[in-house]
């Protein structure tokens, strides 16, 4: 669980985060949405400890980040997994080497233990016969699977994903969404995803927070987002005619069931 209280972050004279408070539960896929410039990236980087907020607290299962020692913060980082927007794989390493990199860097496992763990997570993300291939030899969807395998290889408590579906076709994006949600529930991970993909919001948005101009404008589930009358949310989410139609259908079905 990650608890955020009154988070504020300023760059120069611009206040980017303006008192955000929210809670991310373990075993739940939480999505952060909002227009460019809304504060999503700064918020995610604050959770990761890359940015230091001027005010507010971030607690990881009751541990307040700003009160941790340097060693405690380092230990916390080993509990985090990260899936970057462009996968960020090492071009000169095979799939197996990419996935095993965090274990070699941040664990005391033997080569045999590393091999066993790497084999396990590669199988878990359904990568078949890809161990010895280079990133350039596999598809974008497979590269995302490698990135997810690398992110979970160290058994993280917290998983952060930045636009995990960027550059993927819709069908592959759904596969990646489902994989992230499955892993989140299977290992009871606290998962936070920055996304512009409204399909992801509708498919796996168990909790959604909508940021606007550095403020938490709205939060709820993918079911509740259909019912909201928050104009900023509806303008953002239902900007396309397809999602407007989906919302109308949902509201009509909901009305008929009452």
TrEMBL record:
GO terms for molecular function: ATP binding; ATP hydrolysis activity. Keywords: ATP-binding, Nucleotide-binding, Transport. It holds the Pfam family ABC_tran. The keyword Cell membrane does not apply. InterPro entries: AAA+_ATPase (IPR003593), ABC_transporter-like_ATP-bd (IPR003439), ABC_transporter-like_CS (IPR017871), P-loop_NTPase (IPR027417). It comes from the Bacteria. Residues 2-238 form the ABC transporter domain. The keyword Nucleus does not apply. This is ABC transporter ATP-binding protein. It comes from Flavobacterium sediminis.
């Amino acid at each position: 669980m990650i608890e955020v209280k009154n988070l504020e972050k300023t760059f120069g004279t611009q206040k980017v985060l303006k008192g955000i408070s929210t809670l991310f539960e373990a075993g739940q896929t939480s999505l952060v949405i909002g227009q460019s410039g809304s504060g999503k990236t700064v918020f995610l980087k604050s959770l990761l400890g890359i940015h230091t907020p001027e005010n507010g607290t971030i607690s990881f299962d009751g541990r307040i980040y700003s009160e941790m020692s340097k060693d405690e913060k380092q230990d916390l980082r080993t509990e985090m997994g990260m899936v970057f927007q462009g996968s960020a794989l090492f071009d000169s390493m095979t799939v197996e080497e990419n996935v095993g990199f965090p274990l070699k860097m941040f664990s005391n496992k033997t080569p045999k233990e590393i091999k066993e763990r790497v084999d396990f997570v590669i199988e878990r993300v359904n990568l078949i016969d890809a161990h010895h291939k280079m990133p350039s030899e596999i598809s974008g969807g497979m590269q995302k699977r490698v990135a997810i395998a690398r992110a979970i290889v160290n058994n993280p408590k917290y998983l952060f994903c930045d636009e995990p579906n960027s550059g993927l076709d819709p069908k592959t994006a759904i596969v990646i969404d489902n994989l992230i949600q499955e892993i989140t529930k299977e290992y009871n991970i606290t998962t936070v995803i920055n996304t512009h993909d409204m399909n992801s919001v509708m498919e796996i948005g168990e909790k959604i927070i909508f940021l606007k101009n550095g403020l938490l404008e709205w939060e709820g589930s993918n079911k509740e987002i259909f019912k909201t009358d928050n104009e900023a949310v509806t303008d953002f989410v239902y900007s396309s005619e397809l999602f407007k139609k989906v919302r109308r259908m949902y509201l009509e079905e909901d009305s008929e069931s009452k």
